Amino acid sequence: MNNWSWDVFADAFPKIIDGLGITLGLTIVCYAFALVFGFFWLFIKMIPLKPLRLLVTWIMEFIRSTPPLVQLFFIYFAWPMVPVVGFALNEFTSAVLGLGIHFSTYIAEVYRSGIEGVGKGQWEAAKALNFSKRRKWTKIILPQAIPPTIPMLGNYLIIMFKEVPLASTIGVVGILHIANSYGAQNWTYLEPLTIVAILFLVLSYPSAIIINRIEKKMNRRFDKKEVLTRSKGATA
Amino acid sequence: MQAIIEIFPDLTKGLTITITVLIGAAFFGYLFAFIAGLCRMSSNMFLRKFTGFYVEIFRGTSLIVQLFWLYYAIPMLFGIELGSNWWAGVIAISLNYGAYMSEIVRGSILAVTKGQSEAATALNMSRYQRMRFVILPQAIRMMLPEFGNYSIQMLKATSLVSLIGMEDILYHGNIIRSTNLSQAPTVYLLVLVFYFILALPLIFLTRKMESFSKKGVASG
After folding, report:
1. Which residues in chain B (79-138) have CB-CB distances under 8 A to chain A?
2. How many domains does chain A have?
3. At what angle do helices B169-179 and B2-12 cross, to 10 degrees?
4. Could you give the ipTM of this predicted complex?
5. Contact list, B192 vs chain A (CB under 8 Å)
6. Which residue ranges traverse the bilayer (chain A) (predicted)?
């Protein structure tokens, strides 16, 4: 180690910590947006109209298999240029839309796997008991569909947290952005980027452990491993 | 339409970089995945802990941070140049996805039913033979669909190398956009379509592998 300097470390640390609020805030807002928008895909897919379903499936596949970075750029740079719209979104909103829409397609799959995990007999039982639609969902389906999805949704929170630094490329002043500009100003990227890495590790590793614990507990309680069938491409 | 015809050839210039980075990252990623996955199951405690450390580090931080760290910090820290930004990109992506995929390797090997390795032991196979002829052929089948999924993820991740100055599709897209601002929607839509076209074969391959992996694995 010939270049490591604790002085630089001590100098950069408080500055980078300043950006932590934005990084965490963006994570939460993006995640909330993805959770809500995930329902949107689910609802459209439930409309019994085959061409529409097919179209939505392909749109989701498209969003899922193209880079979130390009989607961010698309929303940030293209939005003001669309003829009818003509107004710009600020960096934060663009990041929320870009990352939120990207991850909502994954979240929708999680919801779907949760609902499909509810055994067929449960639907039939609801029918046999002549439950109303609302009662069927609130009393039978959702109470069984939601718990198995919780650990997966938790995983996506961590994944989201790790994708949020992408927003630094469109100028959201999170920890990575601050570290990069510090590096460019002082000609030393080593310490600031190491601080960012440490912050990510410190924040995401313990949460991953907690989610693993919850997952194990859920598995024991519901003994329904098959419900947690790997949702398609549940990675990022 | 006119715009598309103008933009299209410019974007294809970045195609080679995107594809070579993907192939390099996939090759090293699978390699790291197998090495780390097998090391985590070794009986040597040091090896196990060390690979566990590697996996947690690379899963705990985000790829973009790792990429910047490798590109900017490594040369400063040890005075080594990684050769080019191509290597920085490939190594960052493959180390990151290698860490994720090593868990798949490990999980799949553990998922091969115990009876299989017991049967192999009963046939007086050595540890190596057991792995080579009984466990791995079944485990690899189970890994294939997940590997397909991660390959699509890696394709998406290659877009990050434009941030360290590599001239891939996104880089060329950015250049075109900066010279002609009003074309931004067309440019980025085309870039997205490019990535989607590259992903299509991977998507179909993954679906094929899903059905393939269900056959030929002893269950129960």
Report:
1. 79, 100
2. 2
3. 140
4. 0.88
5. 62, 66, 70-71, 74
6. 20-44, 166-183, 189-211
